[in-house]
# Entry
Amino acid sequence: RVLSCGLKDFCAHGGAEAAAAATAGDKRVPKIASVVGILGHLASRHAGSIKQELLRMFHESLGSPREHHKATVPFLLQLALMSPALLATVSPELVDSLKPPVLNQLHQHFSAVPRDELEGVVGVVVHLLCHTSAGALRTLRFLLATAAP
# Structure
């Protein structure tokens, strides 16, 4: 429920713009900082459930044309930016799930995104890759195998 409410709020406040305001400390816009705090608190006892739900949200969003599903990947990226613990929890399994069909879905998901927004998403992904240590070797192997199979 926390993730679902956070995603709805993220969508209602304009996604990327809302995320920028949240990281800048603006309390009037999204509750994403609260979502991160609540998930951080719950992670000590429910890490497996949180990881499972994050991965479910990711995969469900790729196959759906619904508007709030289009914002799911940016929402999850913002959560990862704001919480290194969430990033460390989910990154190894996420990399394992990026098989060719999922990569094709990601490509289709972002094919209609304007170039400047797409560059922003790519910048966030690169930033996250550079700041993760959990599964770093697995991630590097995945990138090399995907870039030059």
In short: Confidence is low (pLDDT under 50) at residues 20-25.
